[in-house]
Structures are given as C-alpha cells and as structure tokens.
Amino acid sequence: MPFMEWFSSLPTTAAVLLAMLASAAAAVLGLLVVHPIVPHRLRSVHNDVSGFILSTVGVVYAVLLAFIAVAVWQDFDQADRLVQTEANLVGDLYRNTAALPDPVAQNLRHYLFVYAETVVQDEWPALMAGREEAAAGWQLLDRFHLELVQLHTQDLGTASLHAGMVRTLNELYDARRGRFHAATADLPSILWWNLLAGAVILMLLTYLFGVPHVVMHAAMVGLLGAAIGLVLALIVLLDHPFQGKNHVSVEPFNRLVLSVETMSYPHK
Description:
Blueprint: H1 2-9, H2 12-37, H3 40-45, H4 47-96, H5 104-128, H6 135-149, H7 156-184, H8 189-207, H9 214-239, H10 251-261
Helix pairs in contact: 2-8, 2-9, 4-5, 4-7, 4-8, 4-9, 4-10, 5-6, 5-10, 8-9
C-alpha cells in the first residue's frame, strides 16, 4: 500500500510522533463533534453502565492490539534470524570446500562468494524497495548444487563431508525461501479491519462517558488515542521487515563477504 510504504520510509521518531499526534487529533475531533450532539447531562446519568462497557471493550481491544503487536514483532525477529542463519550456512559451506579437491573446490567457493555479493548488492536493495529479484541467486545455488552432487570420491572422509554439505545446502534453500516469504508476507486484511474498527468503537464509547469538564475529557481521549497510535505505528513499521528505516540488517552478509575476502584460500 502506498501509504504504508511512505509511512515506513519516514525516520522512526517522525513516524511515531506523526502516528501519535494524528490519532490524538482524530480522537479529540471526534469528541468535539459528539459533545454538542449528546448533552453532558444525558451522558453522565449513564456513567455506571458506560464505564462497565468501556472497561470490557477496552480490555478486549488491548488484548487484540497486544496479540497483533507481539505477532508482528515475532515475525520480524524470525526474519532477522533467517538472514543470520542463511549467512551462517553460506559461510559453513565455503569453509567446508577446503577439504574438496580442486578445481571443484575453487568453483564452489566462487559460486558462494558471488552469491553473497548478489544478496548484498542486488537482492537486498530490491527487498527494501518491495521487489523480489531472486533469479540470479537461485542460478548460482543451482550451479553450486550441480557441481557438488557430480563430485564422486572413494575417500570415506571426503564422502562424509560431501553428504554433510548437501544437507547444509538444503538448509540454505529453506532459509532463503523463508527470507523471501517474510519479505512478501502481510497482515491479513481482517486483522487491519479489527484494529481500526476496534479503535473507532473504543473511542466512541469514551465519548459517551460523562465528564464534567470537556477540556479534561478531551485530554483523556487524546492521550488514549495517542497510545493507540503508538502501538499501531509499531505494527506498521515492523509489518514489512525488509522495508523502511527499521528493516532487518544485511550486516550478516556484509561480514560474510569481508571474512571471505580475508581467508587464506581463494574465492575466484
């Protein structure tokens, strides 16, 4: 969604302040609309019932908000772990090639080094822009896979290492697929509808509560709106882990490329 992309591209402080101020302003504006329509005398008479219903709805909405915020944070953390795992697996494969005969080992190291550079230079900028450019990376892994499985040896130690490298490569495939899935996954529309509709219902109930002074009432609903906006900002900013200012870091692959360039055995 264009708005989500624009909002995620803002600096974190600006995005959070904007969400809080906009939510607080909307909450206060709603109160100013309702206040002259439903007289304070009528609202204050029903404060006991209004307070009970407001508490119940508030708890239900707080649970919903917390559940989605935690789920989004867990997805973000999982995406970060997938990137670290993927970089670790590439590094493990690279080091294991030292026990393989040349020129196969040199070719395999070359494929892995170019793969790491491709992730950093091509795939990552595309993910940050909301695109998926995976073809080049898959082609490099396909070449690596074909050359690895075509290696036949009578040495038991090398054969055992070979089998382990195939298992590691399959784990790399899983981590790579998981990274692209995390980059394209979205919160279901029904959850967004629940978040927004729940916020509207909760704010309407606060308007029906009879407070003697409208300024104090406006301050309370404004603070409540700001709190809701704060959590909604967190959900929006973390919903797409590879986009915006708070994206998952590519540093694991940067460190991998740097470490490969300083290793004693060649990568080209």
